[in-house]
Amino acid sequence: MSKLLVVDDEFRIRQIIRKYAEFEGHTVDEAVDGMQAIEVCRRNKYDLIIMDIMMPELDGFSACREIRKFTDTPVIMLSARGEEYDKIHGFELGSDDYVVKPFSPKELMLRVNAVIKRSAGKSQAQQKDEFTYGGLNVDFSARIVTIDGNRVEMTPKEYELFFYMVKNKGLALTREKLISEVWGYDFFGDERTLDTHIKLLRKSLGEYSRCIVTLRGVGYRFEAL
Fold first, then answer.
1. pLDDT > 70 fraction of the chain, expressed in percent and rounded
2. CATH: 3.40.50.300, 3.40.640.10, 1.10.10.10, 3.40.50.620. Which one for 130-222?
3. What's the predicted TM-score (pTM) here?
4. Which of 86, 135, 170, 174 has a CA that sits 20 to 30 A from residue 12's CA?
C-alpha cells in the first residue's frame, strides 16, 4: 500500500483520482493548491505526489520546485496544456511524468503504479564507484557530478539516464533500451520523453555535452575518447 498526495484546486478531479487510487489499494491525502501541498509534504512522507500545474496561490511548477528542496518523492504533473515547453519545464524541476488533461483515470493509475514501482526498486546501498574524463567526474555512489570541481545540478531522472549511459560508455544504446532501463519496461510515455531528457542533460553538461552522441535511427552513445 502506497501513500499518495493529490494536489488540484478542482474538487471533482481530486475525488476521481482518490476513487481510483483507493481502489488500487493506495491511501490518499489531498491539497487544494501549491502552498498547502508544500506544508503537507513537510509534515508527511509520501510515496508519490500527483500535482496539477494551474492552481491559485501557488502553481504546480513553483510548488514542485520548493518540494524538491527537501524531498525526492516522485511527482506526476497534471496539466490541461500539452506544449513541449511545459513538459520540458516540468522535467527540469524534477517531475517523473507528465499527464495531459483530460486523462483516463485508469491510465493515470498505471502510470502511478509504474512510477512507484521504479522508485521502490532503487537500491539505497550502492558500491563506491567513480568515473573521470578530463574535468568531468562522476561519483555513482554519492550521485554527484562535477565539472572542473563545480557540482552539476541535475534532476533525479537526469542522474539515472546519465549514470546508465556512462556505465555503458562506448556502446550503442537504442532508444528502446534506454527507456526500458531508465524508465522501466512498463513506461507509458513516448520516445519524446527520452529526447527531452537528453536535451536537458546536454545543457547540464556544458562542454561535455559532446560526449553524448546521437546515433540517427538508433539511439545514443556516450563517448569519452
1. 93
2. 1.10.10.10
3. 0.61
4. 86
